[in-house]
C-alpha cells in the first residue's frame, strides 16, 4: 500500500500537469468559449487534486471524512482544524472550491474570462502554499510528530 507521501506526490504531479496547461492571464480575454471551458476544467482539476490530498491526509490521521451536502466546505474546515493546512491556505482555497461547484453545475459556455482571471492569476501562489503545508504535514507524519 502506498504511503501518504507517495499518494501526495502522485496527486501533486497531476496538479502540476493541469496547471502547466492553463493559459496565461493576459491570454484569457482572447480565448474562445471552448478554450475558456478547457481552462475551467483545468482549474476544476486543480481543486479536485487538492481535495484528494486533503482526504488522504485526514484518513492518515484516522479522521473520518465529512459527509453530507456541505462535505466540500467541511473538508477544508477539517483539514484546517487538524493542522494539515493553515487558515490562510483554507481561505485562499475557498474561491477554487466555489468555482468547482459552479463549474460542475453550469454550462461551459457560461464561463467568462473575468470570472476566471483572479483564479488563474492567483492559482500559482495558492498552490505553492498548499504544497508546502501538505508536504510538511506528510513529513511530520513520517517522523511521528502528528
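^ C-alpha cells above, recovered residues below v
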Amino acid at each position: 500500500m502506498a504511503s501518504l507521501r507517495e499518494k501526495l506526490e502522485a496527486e501533486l504531479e497531476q496538479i502540476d500537469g493541469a496547471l502547466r496547461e492553463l493559459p496565461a492571464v493576459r491570454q484569457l480575454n482572447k480565448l474562445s468559449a471552448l478554450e475558456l471551458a478547457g481552462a475551467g476544467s483545468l482549474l476544476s482539476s486543480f481543486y479536485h487534486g487538492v481535495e484528494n490530498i486533503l482526504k488522504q491526509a485526514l484518513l492518515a490521521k484516522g479522521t473520518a471524512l465529512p459527509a453530507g451536502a456541505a462535505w466540500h466546505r467541511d473538508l477544508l474546515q477539517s483539514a484546517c482544524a487538524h493542522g494539515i493546512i493553515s487558515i490562510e491556505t483554507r481561505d485562499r482555497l475557498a474561491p477554487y472550491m466555489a468555482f468547482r461547484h459552479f463549474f460542475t453545475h453550469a454550462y461551459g459556455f457560461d464561463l467568462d474570462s473575468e470570472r476566471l482571471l483572479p483564479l488563474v492569476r492567483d492559482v500559482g501562489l495558492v498552490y505553492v502554499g498548499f504544497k508546502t503545508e501538505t508536504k510538511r504535514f506528510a513529513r511530520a507524519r513520517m517522523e511521528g510528530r502528528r
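Residues 113-142 form the longest helix (30 residues).
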